[in-house]
Amino acid sequence: MTSATSRIDSQLSAYFKEIYPDPGEGKDNTRAVNVRQELYRLFEEGIGHDEPSIKRSSWVAFNAVTEFVDHVRTSRGANDADRASRRLDSIWFGSGARLKQQAWNLANEMAMAV
């Protein structure tokens, strides 16, 4: 592993941990770890992430978060229509929108730090 790859992996780990931090001390962090593993998977395998000009960039890290929020993250509801409605509300106005804004801000900070 090159030092550049190591630096990128370290930044990516910090980025995903900032977005999905571990809960407080003594609490189970299984969910946060699972979400971060999914974000890593989407970073490597997400839609359009194989384009050589953007591969392993802060843009792809941000897109991994948006793909997770918009297409992977589960929503609660009594039926499929209710779950879809709640997901869309979250994506546009709720926790999904806030998470994507946080991811955007952090990705910009990462890009400017290079």
Alpha plus pi helix count? 5
Distance between the termini: 19 Å
Structural class: mainly alpha
Q: Helix and strand string, N-terminal first?
A: HHHHH
Describe the model.
The protein is mostly helical and 114 residues long. It has one domain. The protein has five helices and no strands. α1 crosses α2, α2 crosses α3 and α4 packs across α5. The longest helix is centred in the last third of the chain and has 19 residues. The protein is globular and about 50 Å long.
Q: Which secondary structure elements does this structure contain, and how are they paired or packed?
A:
Layout: H1 3-19, H2 30-45, H3 58-72, H4 80-92, H5 95-113
Helix pairs in contact: 1-2, 2-3, 3-5, 4-5
Summarize, please.
With about 110 residues, the chain is mainly alpha-helical. It has helices at about 5-20, 30-45, 60-70, 80-90, 95-114. Helices cover about 70% and strands about 0% of the residues.
What descriptors fit this protein?
single chain, 114 residues, mainly alpha, 0% strand
